[in-house]
Amino acid sequence: MEQVEDHAIEVGTVQDLDGYQGALGGLTRREFLSYCTGVAATLGLSSMMGLRIAAAATAPARPPVIWLSAQECTGCTESLLRAYHPTLETLILDMISLDYHEALCAGAGHQAEAYRAQSMKANWGKYILVVDGSIPTKDGGIYCMVAGRPILETVREAAEGAAVIIGIGSCASWGGIPSSDPNPTGAQSVHAVLPGKTVVNIPGCPPNPYNFLSTVLYLLTFGKPPELDSKNRPRFAYGRLIHENCERRPHFDAGRFALEFGDFGHRQGFCLYKIGCKGPETYANCPAIGFGDVGEGNWPVGIGHPCFGCTEEGVGFTKPLHALSRVKTYAPPTAFPAVDATKGEGVTPAAVAIIAGAAGLAVGAGAMALRGMDGKDESAAGSSHDSER
Amino acid sequence: MTEIESRIAELVAHFRQIGVIQMQDLPIYNAGLEVEAVGFQAVGNRWIGVLITPWFMNAILLPSEKTALDAKLIGQKSQEALPAATCAFISGGDETVGGYKSLSLYSPMAAFTSQDRARHEAQARLTALLTPPAELPKPVAQESPPQEPANLSRRAFLRGRRNA
Fold it and tell me: Would you say A124 and A109 are in contact if contact means Cβ atoms under 8 Å apart?
């Protein structure tokens, strides 16, 4: 098997290992392949996939991604690792080049940091910067140090060369748990520490992986972020209240409520509003696409717990779980995307949500560079998609 | 009063009662509104209209025969073909008024400052649901996803190197 793999490497696609070696801090070819199979193992893939990583890692056209972790719990990454459309490995092998991610990269210490610096330098102005976790700003940002530097500095430096910045999770989007009162570290959102920059926010604790993946696929396909709302959240995912798509909504309409956990109403699956559900003030598509790829109904309200508003600033981690949801006021009808949009026959809402977000995935699969994002024409990418510009 | 009129009257009366008993003390209740059925009309063998209450505005699909409420169906989503589009309705209902399907248009209702505005919006949304799309370009047959390259060698296929 070893020989077959070696042969595949010789004649196959991994031809520019020498060029890649330097980037890996002087790894030999053998070490590089070990590194790739290590990455594969980290992702739970076979060693054969390690070779695909090697091949993919040297393919020229994929946009590099730098993923920085600040005050976070790795829940966003955990959530992402449990996505299947596409799987994370498809994403990082075929579509992007995940150049740096503290939890997922096989390298460590100086090697990993050197590679991050190298990748940022080589791809200045072109890479996607993803940040999870909030940024502590108190006392010069010393409460989150990575590689001996405050993450605040690293994020600001990396943002300068980023084509697009994504804040994944509630912490990065609006501060999340670390910013809750009394906020001892002065935690702020990514957007707050990058004045003047556009940060695409994917809030949630954890965020639904498909909202992130769909956004990334959209970026790869069209070279620009999807339509965003006033808080820079993609509208396809955060355009409607939880309450509006909730499967328990008929019970709300008819005034049937659970009054305490385990009572008759709770066992009957009645509306959870009176035990603190924040669905009426929380924007997210959880009821439509669920979590964990096991079909509809697998989300907090679906399994009997009130929504606690994890995506929503001022609700999640701020209001007591039992507190009645406040009612938001906004001006209809122009502010709303349609909840009654056309849906394909026989297609599950989850599929629709995913397709809506990742529209054109198949179309764009051949053109993976972020065309036009940095204002430069990347003619290497497929030219058949000019109409998208 | 025809049968359908009496059933819609029953619907309105029952939701008024729900409002008094269950909803009026909640912050989600807009006391400036009242329960009203707007524009119920026959579509095929069902009735469709919009129900305004102080806590929601839904399009309601009412079966022409009153059907007993099946608790197992509550919350099930189904695709219903309307003149304008195919929409995802949620099954719901009540023991008094029987089963129906609903499509959430608004909830909470805090944004509506008067019954007139709510009625106007209800009528507009209902009309939108019942108006066939005008002269949309015929849907172009979806391009099939890129096929496997015909020259994929057996060896490459067995190695799973489709993208090589």
Answer: no
